[in-house]
């Protein structure tokens, strides 16, 4: 693999220094090929196998555009399960560590709604959650997406397999139409591309074939 170092990207110095601290020197293939589109604000469909570093693609995209001084939800990441949402939230907190006080909330089913609503009331910059629970918060008016700039559909293949399509469509309708939408999948995204075409605006497509 001859991927580039992160330092070729137009990221701020503190984000770059933190990546070095995390041991991220060179980009993985999906990062190398996707991040230029993401950082210029394009919508994206990205497919690469599990473990290839897709979280940092959207994580750096969200953080690049985030205004820490504006305490409002600016990034929303939808994940298929609670475990994945917690894992993604953890990775986003690590990536955001050098950017000051950035609040990342994980909102999934199986936990009571009220404490989550109270956390939202206190404010958050980034929300990671499962579609059903995010839909619940939108329905109750406890989650405000007025200031959202990045919507991420992570593991979109699994989310559609699990029957979350209608919830996702409802969430997309609650997002500002002027936003960046990033979609990630571990499998070849032909049917996903069809199903989600209305959610994305002229997306760049990056497919990384698995090496055998
Ligand atoms: P995916 O979502 O594609 O399954 P992840 O984003 O979960 O993959 O990343 C898999 C692992 O690789 C994580 O432990 C992550 O911290 C690590 N990782 C990601 N990008 C890099 C990189 N450029 N250099 C070193 N480690 C990385
Ligand atoms: Mg992932």
UniProtKB/TrEMBL annotation:
It comes from the Bacteria. The gene is dbpA. Belongs to the DEAD box helicase family. This is ATP-dependent RNA helicase. The chain holds residues 1 to 212 of 469 of the full protein. Signal peptide: none annotated. Residues 35-206 form the Helicase ATP-binding domain.
